[in-house]
Design a protein that fits this description.
The complex is a heterodimer of chains A (about 575) and B (about 180). Chain A has about 575 residues and is an alpha/beta fold. Helix content of chain A is about 35%, strand content about 15%. Chain A is built from 24 helices and 20 strands. In chain A, the strands form four sheets. Chain A has a six-stranded parallel sheet with strand order 3-2-4-5-7-6, sandwiched between helices. A six-stranded parallel sheet of chain A has the order 11-10-9-12-13-14, sandwiched between helices. Chain B is α+β, with helices and mostly antiparallel strands. Chain B has two domains: about 1-80, Alpha-Beta Plaits; about 80-150, Alpha-Beta Plaits, CATH 3.30.70.1150. In chain B, about 25% of the residues lie in helices and about 40% in strands. Chain B is elongated, with a radius of gyration of 19 Å. Classes of the chains: A alpha/beta (about 575), B alpha+beta (about 180). The interface of A and B includes residues 183 and 188 of A. Bound molecules: thiamine diphosphate and magnesium ion (MG).
Amino acid sequence: MKKKQTGAQIVWECLIREGVEVVFGYPGGANLPLYDALPDYPIHHVLVRHEQGASHAADGYARSTGKVGVAMTTSGPGATNMVTGIATAMMDSSPTVFITGQVASKLIGYDAFQEIDVTGITLPITKHNYLVTDVNEISSAIREAFYIARTGRPGPVLVDISKDAQQNAIEWEYDDSPIKLPGYRPDPTLSRGHVQQVVDMIQSARRPVILAGNGIIASGAMDEVLDFAEHTNTPVAMTLLGLGAFPASHPLALGMMGMHGESWVNTAIQEADLLIAFGMRFDDRVTGNVKTYAPKARKIQFDIDLSEINKNVPVDAALIGDLRHTLRQVIDFIQPCEHREWVETIQQMKDEASAHSILTDSGDKHLYAAHVIDELWKCTDGDAIIVTDVGQNQMWAAQYYKLDKPARFISSGGLGTMGFGLPAAVGVKMGNPDAEVWLIVGDGGFQMTQAELSTAAQEGIKITIALINNGYMGMVRQWQEFFYDRRYSATPMRNPDFVKIAEAHGLTGLLVTQRADIEKTIQQARQTEGTVLIEFKVEKEDSVYPMVPAGASLHQMIRRPVPNTAFEKEEAQSKAK
Amino acid sequence: MKSTLVVLVENKPGVLNRVASLFRRRAFNIDSLAVGRTENPDVSRMTIVVDSDQLNIERLTAYLYKLVNVIQVYNLTATPSVDRDLALIKVQANDESRSHIMQIVDVFRARIVDVNSNSLMVEITGDEEKIEGFIEVLKPWGIIEMVRTGLVSMARGASSLLVDPIPVSDFNRITV
Ligand SMILES: Cc1ncc(C[n+]2csc(CCOP(=O)(O)OP(=O)(O)O)c2C)c(N)n1
Ligand SMILES: [Mg+2]
């Protein structure tokens, strides 16, 4: 039945219809009508401390729950503050909807106070966006926004709503007729002939490797990938965002590929005769030099996004569609395969690499981030949701926290956004109140969005923060060490007392300076109520190994020097130059 | 190589900007772009000429399809089709030169649309080649001003791009 409703009320009604329970936001002049209506609706609003925080929180919520994350801000600076978060969501295909207030429609185009062309600014960083200046168009825009955000290759959609459209009232009733988007094809279907050719290539491979990406998680195709890998006995390498898409503890799991991938993983890719890519896009951090990438391998790419095919790496075959469906169709035609020799060869490389592992180095008593994350993995039975920031902390988290389940490694991959971690962790916890949520963050990135500690405190939620304090912008320092003659220009930081910062928010701060204290402090933090920050004062000049220098071939890795042979480190570095 | 793409889009505000922005962002050069209405009031039709190799045209097509408002993309380069550009050319003309120019206009089947004591305005339609040729011949007489609409293109035969779209499953393909 039709009821008189304002545009603001219609927005909330529509959000409820979409199943929204939590919204991250910040009020201001151009979205006051929305905030005025909010208390009447059963939606929990999380007040962030900076709009960037709202955008990352919505993104973290979305990645960890698979539901659409929602953030809302006012016009002008409120909207531009979200730009980094929207771009982050875009690069990593995170299903999100951003609702921004806009100045009154009659002022649009006149440089009114806090007027900015938000749909223009966000055009290249959204999957789609809307400018709504008529209250009659609000509900269709929001319905379409959610539909577009969560279907096909997911991504951010922005809806900019003028203040008068929020204020005006109409006789309204929810319209659930089918959405009409003549140009939008979220799930293309495949033809039988292509399937047969792909099957033949898989069947005749001797050294195949699966490249598992974020698309597996987006599609929910974990079971299909597991079936496929076991059925064909194909080892599985993972991208950063593909971590958890295939269980790390599975005998066929190789680990992470790419710039900071394990040596045996990158070597296996370079030696492979067939690469089978599932929902990954051959990013340059994954391929190294594309000209020398996997030179012996034929390549098959499974992706829902046609524009990813042949984009970075030319492939021999491609199947476009939702991976869950495409893979199902392929599996049915494949005979079981063995590949025993190949799997054993990789295992040997893996065993040899353990000499380089800092975890097995008993001589050196210093505190390394690797020990922290390894211990964290053990203490939490590998069952926590890990949110990371960007830099060395992120790579160590990826290398040492071995995930068996999907959507538990929440990290900014494509954009590499420092400051993502803390607000994303708030979003993750809001979406997963019963899960154990750990944030692994560097001293630099933490300070970029540190204000969101207030948000965590206000919400009374428990996040546990492992702050890896190396006193440097570590990842940049590492590049300076390897490629710029150790000129540490603008990377050392004089840091605040992080424990006191936690305490100033009414939260618990703990300090660890030696290896022996890691485990008991982690356990103490887990048992403490509310958000806890542990500052780990780690070795200042440790580096992430292995490392494929940018633009080098994937097998040209700088390896961690075998303990006590410092000269090898020097040698490795001079080779890299 | 020059390719002619016909892009059918939803007739909504801002769609031209989305398409143009895509070309800029992905570093494709637009040779010409013409937009106009179609037999269906909800659909606009763009004819875009781009200078790019085949692989990049495929990439571009895929990117265009990612735009929510893009309904169909058709590459007419290799399809038998009618191509038309329209130019208005203002050329210097006095009592002495006017009749010479009018002869040229006749030969090219162009039309004089404005006459003045010092100039003539000529309208010509045709494909790229014809118009280029006409401009070359007129140049020595002194071109004062010129404008071209950009190419529009339509495939020969009875089919309609809107009614007989390419099946999307054709995107699944094997390249070896
Ligand atoms: C917003 C942003 N600015 C700059 C960078 C470049 N950058 C990448 S890693 C890094 C250093 C990060 O330092 P820290 O947070 O202390 O982490 P660490 O590498 O020491 O673990 C920088 C500056 C970035 N990724 N994001
Ligand atoms: Mg640091």
